[in-house]
Amino acid sequence: MAMAMKFGRAMVLVVIASVMMGASLAYPGWNNNNGYAWPPKQDNGPTEVPPTKVVVGGSENWHFGFDYSTWANKNGPFYVNDTLVFKYDPPSDSNTHPHSVYMFPSFWSYMRCDLRRATMVANVSDGAGDGFEFKLSQKWKFYFFACGESGGFHCSTGKMRFSLVSLPRPWKWHG
Ligand SMILES: *[C@@H]1O[C@H](CO)[C@@H](O)[C@H](O)[C@H]1NC(C)=O
Ligand SMILES: *[C@@H]1O[C@H](CO)[C@@H](O)[C@H](O)[C@H]1NC(C)=O
Ligand SMILES: [Cu+2]
Questions:
Q1: Cβ 99 vs Cβ 62: under 8 Å
Q2: What domains sit in the chain, N to C, each tagged with a CATH number?
Q3: Relative to the CA of 91, which ligand 2 atom is closest?
Q4: Which pTM value belongs to this model?
């Protein structure tokens, strides 16, 4: 019994000693200005890539018949706090089929262009001028966008819909 306890205490000391040695070996550059210091210095540490504004559809803007799903796949990924800009003409004598922006709450309502469950985020006039800006303010959120006009016809046949997930913002070094 006494032998076992002595041995046990010795083992504890060995474990403690090796943890301390391991700790000092594991952080050779701790605070020594060779690039391993933490937190990183502001002048050479990583910085978040600043948010960008993206015009949905690029020079095509927001109109009937353009494939926005393909556009989103080619122009992603999108990051939290990026801003989407929807540009479309308001209703007028020469524009009798205006557009809008709706958001679906789920993949299934998006797939079916089921506008009964969708929320209008921009009406037919909001896309005028510099366009309607929508900030992707939630991280890791699936966003489902569509035009809400003509009872879902612009969404389905007109291909005016796309989805994306807002990724965490990327970092870059020496920014
Ligand atoms: C997004 O922007 C808000 C302020 O506009 C800021 O508080 C937040 O930290 C930002 N989120 C990310 C992930 O950068
Ligand atoms: C669209 O919304 C704006 C506010 O963003 C409002 O001033 C305008 O009256 C609305 N237009 C229509 C046609 O609903
Ligand atoms: Cu439309």
A1: yes
A2: 1-41 (no CATH), 47-172 (2.60.40.420)
A3: 13
A4: 0.77
